[in-house]
Structure formats: C-alpha cells, structure tokens
Write a structure and sequence with these properties.
This protein is an alpha+beta fold and 157 residues long. The chain has 4 helices and 7 strands; from the N terminus they run βββββααββαα. A 4-stranded antiparallel sheet has the order 1-2-3-4, with helices on one face. Strand 3 and strand 4 form a beta hairpin. The two termini are 27 Å apart.
C-alpha cells in the first residue's frame, strides 16, 4: 500500500510541484529544482529507507524578511490606490504573495542522525499531516514485523 501526496513547493510559483510517497520500505521525496527561484531546472529525488527514519514532525516556520517586505509592499499599494487603482491592485497581490511566502510548514524527517526538511506553503499543512500519519503508520507496521513478542502472542492464539 503506497500513500502519495502531491504538494506545491512555493506560494508564488505554484507550478513548481513535488511529491512525498511512503510505502512499506521507503519514503520517496521529489522536489523541483529552480533557477532564480521560479524557472524549473530538474528534480531533487530522495529515497529514504524506512529503517533509517527515527521520527517525523511538522514545524511552522516564519521567515521575517519576506513578511516585512510583503507588509511594506502592501502599504505602498494602499498609498498608491489614489493614483492608479489597477497598479495598486497589482502591488497588493504581489505584496500578499510575498507575505504569504514567509509563512511555511516544514515536514522534518529525522533519519540516521540528520534531519531532512521539506518546506511547503502554509496552505499545504493538511497534506503534510496526512503523509506524516502514513509514515508513522508504516514505521509502526515495520516495528511490529520484527517484534518477536507479538509474533509469539499471535501464534499462541
């Protein structure tokens, strides 16, 4: 049984996609590489053996520079609303996009002494929770397969 979740890797550049898949042996992660943050340029693929994963967690990350820059652009948009409504609307959308890109959720996969981070926009948190639950379930199944006490209990029943 494989569980796969497709995620957007950027709020502003929504066409840059990736996926996280988990099965009984591996966690597969594919992220899009970009040039200048928005031009697609290949993929970064990771196959992490389930046996090497000790735990997973989801963390919220707030990047202060994009948040401040987004707020400044939004204020500039409000001040320019009297001169050009269309220009102010464009500035407002750009400012909101930059502000939103500063709010991220990160799936942290702890493996063999190092962390593997998968940052996604804030609106993808439900997908991260789904895949985190799937990884935890597969880890539990993998542990149960090697637990001799459970094997002998089932055999006696």
């Amino acid at each position: 049984m494989e569980k796969r979740v497709d995620v957007s890797l950027s709020l502003l550049f929504f066409w840059v996609k990736g996926f996280i898949a988990v099965d009984s042996r591996f966690v597969r992660v594919s992220k899009g590489n970009t040039i200048l943050g928005f031009i697609p340029a290949g993929r970064d693929n990771q196959n992490i053996p389930l046996k090497n994963i000790s735990s997973t967690m989801i963390s919220s990350q707030y990047k202060i520079k994009p948040i401040i820059l987004g707020i400044i652009i939004i204020f500039l948009a409000f001040s320019a609303i009297g001169q050009s409504f269309l220009g102010a609307l464009v500035l407002l959308l750009i400012g909101a996009g930059i502000l939103g890109s500063g709010l991220q959720n990160v799936l942290v996969i702890q493996r063999a002494g190092s962390d593997y981070l998968i940052p996604v926009p804030f609106f993808e948190k439900a997908k991260l929770l789904t895949i985190q639950d799937a990884i935890t379930e597969m880890l539990a199944q993998d542990t149960d397969k090697t637990d001799l006490n459970m094997f002998f209990e089932k055999k006696q029943q």
